[in-house]
Amino acid sequence: MKKFIFTALVAAFATTSFAQDIVKQMKGQTYAEATATLNAALSGLSAEQKAKGYNQLVEIVIGDANKAFSDIQVANMNKNKVETDTYTPIVNALNDAVKCDEFDSQPNDKGKVAPKFRKKNADRLVAFRNLLINAANETTDPDKKLVLANAYINSSESPLFAEALKAGDQYLGYAQFFAAAAYYNKEDWHKAADYAEKALKCDDVKENAEQYLVSALTKSLKTKSDTLAYLKKLNEVNPDKYMGQIASVYNQIGEKALSEKILNDALAKDPNNKMAYAIKGENAMSAKNWDEAIKFFKKTVEIDPAWVQVWFNLGVCASSKGYDLNEQLSENGRISTENDAKVKGALREAMGYYEKVRELDPNREAIANWPYQLRMIYNALGENDKAAEISKMLGE
Q: What is the pTM of this model?
């Protein structure tokens, strides 16, 4: 037992001794070597020793960071391209200084907080920060964009630069937006939405940040809880702008009465709200209520005659109505003359809508498959020459 205790004491003494000598261990090492040395020792270090260790990393990398800062300024003045990797020592210096300050700000053995390294690090690193904004903007690599943006964000949120930023941080919104863009490209929808929401406070990027926010939230929907949170966020951001999406989603999750109320309220406020009529049409269309859908879609194109997607929806509804009538009114594959006229009436109505789509979208830029739908109608109505013309157009 005594031998075991003695061994434990020796091990404890060795750990303490190593902790006290962490800076000495790191001196003379490269930045990579010193980082490895510190990381290996972190679990056995006090907050004070961790602060000293991270500060030593700053001391090791500061020369390269200063050179990079100078090289980047010269390149910018000469309008020369700067490779993203040039910013690495600057990023490392800022990140290490932030970590240093995190531990340097913790109470000492007497319970007092007296940062030893804050002023020196803040003074020598504050000028580096703004360079990261242009770098994050210019790189298309989402991983590099994230490294640069996060270095800026972390330094902005650290007490290390509180004095320098007491009047505000004019570029923080940009950095948050770049982080949102990077996370979006990495398909991390939750983080993309989180940073995009933060960036909304910056007027210069607000519009684009809002697009990332809404798109990322849309892509992250998995549960009803996600959907309700999404709807709440759209209402917070701009309920009028996203009225259509809000009403559509409520309809999709079975809250049809609430969806209808939102649309009716929008129309009460603006009787020419084309989006409200379009969503009413889509809701009726999803319920296969073709006449109701046609009524609302027709009201929509009265307000906006160039809305090609709505004209196409009209074609879908009218043709679906015709096909349904044919099935309902046929007996043993036969249909009366009167009922056949009803079916063909619906199909001719659909033909007119699809021909309007053709007029508005001749190059199929908005609706790629309208020729197939129109040809189907021509064939159903016996318009063989017109159907052949569509086939020729399609190269068939």
A: 0.77
